Amino acid sequence: MRGVILSKPCRNAEAKGSKRCMAVGQVYSQVHCVPYDLSVQCQCKLQSCRSHISNYNGINLRNTQRRHSTQRLEEAYKKIKAKCQSKKLPKDVNPKAVFACNELDLKEVNVYGFDYDYTLACYKPSMDYVLYNLGRQILIERFKYPLEISQLEYKPGFAVRGLHYDIGKGVLLKLDSFLQIQFGSVYKGLKPLSVDEVLKLYKNRIIPIAHVEGHSKNASDFNQAKMVQLADLFSVPEMGLLCNVADYFERNHIDYHPEILFRDVKSSVKSSHPLMHKIVSENVSEYIESNEKLRPFFDRLKNSNKKLFLVTNSPYKFVNKGMEMLVGKDWKEYFDVLIVQARKPRFFTDVSRPIRVYDEQSGSHIWDRVTKLEKGVIYYEGTVKQLQDLTGWRGHQVLYFGDHPYSDLADVTLEHGWRTGAIINELTHEIATLNNVEFKKNANWLQMLTQLIEDHQDCEDPDEQKVLQKWMAERDKLRNDIKVVFNPQFGSVFRTYHNPTYFSRRLFRFADIYTSNITNLLNYSVKHTFYPRRGVMPHEYISYFV
Ligand SMILES: [Mg+2]
């Protein structure tokens, strides 16, 4: 091919001397003149250009053009890949930071309230084994499940919290904030279901809100929930037992009702708690992570004249053993009010249930009417109304910490205007994963590749479509790569492939702040204001990496 000088120097061309044809907008080098689209006749006034085009015909010309059209995509890919590789990776996130969903000024907080389990006391993985083994034993002894299930061992790391269990279909799955099923994270027993199997079961990728939250637009449909969310850390071994037993039934072709199995497992694990309390109390250091910062944390709050209270569902003796190990024998000195066996969330929702006194010496309950709350006395049951009425602690001066977004945080913030903090232990693993260099590179490239696909998807040419399909396959692999590093089955607690999970939407709604451990607050003064960041909305999107 002979070269031709086109009408105008190209502004974009990297090679010096390249030109842009004014008619078709295509860039040509001086030695190659091939129009981009056959339907557009090159309008260059230069005779040499016309005569050059006229030399092309038939297949040769089309092949050359196709080569050039896919070449256009390949060049775009190379360019964006080079750009991605040249980008600086984001800085590491501090795993001990406190994150704000809502502005919170600690100067306004005079009263600090705490849940106990997984808020003050963080349990070691050994706790999961205890609950699993006790639950399995009760399934066999009380509910007469086959003896063979005693061989089913706990599989650590199988489930994450925040999953939904479909009590009708016997499926454990992960939902995003739009109630969409995350494909690839749907399990029947221990077996993952394919996309086709999921669509066959649900006919849709979106679950109706009435099935998830138990209500719909029609009042008569109230309490139609078919999904149960497993939102606390005690439910992780419960999910493990549920899936192991379901898998046993499936493998052995034993007919079972998923709802009966679910209720039996739940009941077994729940009724194992008194036994678990006894086992843990006898050897607390085996089950509870020590935290030498907890006492300094309480010291700082007391030195700043803050009031402290504890509202926990656990019994006194169990809490006492753990707190003695975590804080010291005198731990009760830090608390102005202690309420055990509170039966949350009813503690926050019931209007009438008397608060009562527990006698530590005799280990029994006292029938006296409670007219004031005294330091050093152990109370049980009651309601948040009595706590507020007897102390005068109200509204935004109270900051309550819990690990359960619903039973600890939802009602106190929605009904009583308390400020709320969530303790989410999984953040330690989640942030360590986010900080991994390979993860950052993959997440970065996923964003840019997605943009590339979106920009070029409308091409009609079959060869170009093949290139697009190749890009889509690469995107699918990337999405899976950055999912499985969190958890091979269910991915991150906080995200589906790209959307927030159902769990994180609720968490962000009910928690003003959240962090991995209560003592991370020591990194901030008691006058600190936590400011939420201006998050990027889709219409404000300017960066490839958010
Ligand atoms: Mg708790």
From TrEMBL:
Its cofactor is Mg(2+). InterPro entries: HAD-like_sf, HAD-SF_hydro_IG_5-nucl, HAD_sf, Pur_nucleotidase. Binds 1 Mg(2+) ion per subunit. Gene3D superfamilies: HAD superfamily/HAD-like. The keyword Transferase does not apply. GMP binds at residue 117. The active site is at 115 (nucleophile), 117 (proton donor). Mg(2+) binds at residues 115, 403. It holds the Pfam family 5_nucleotid. Keywords: Hydrolase, Magnesium, Metal-binding. It comes from the Eukaryota. One of its GO terms (molecular function) is 5'-nucleotidase activity. Belongs to the 5'(3')-deoxyribonucleotidase family. This is 5'-nucleotidase domain-containing protein 3. It comes from Zophobas morio. The lineage of its organism: Eukaryota, Metazoa, Ecdysozoa, Arthropoda, Hexapoda.
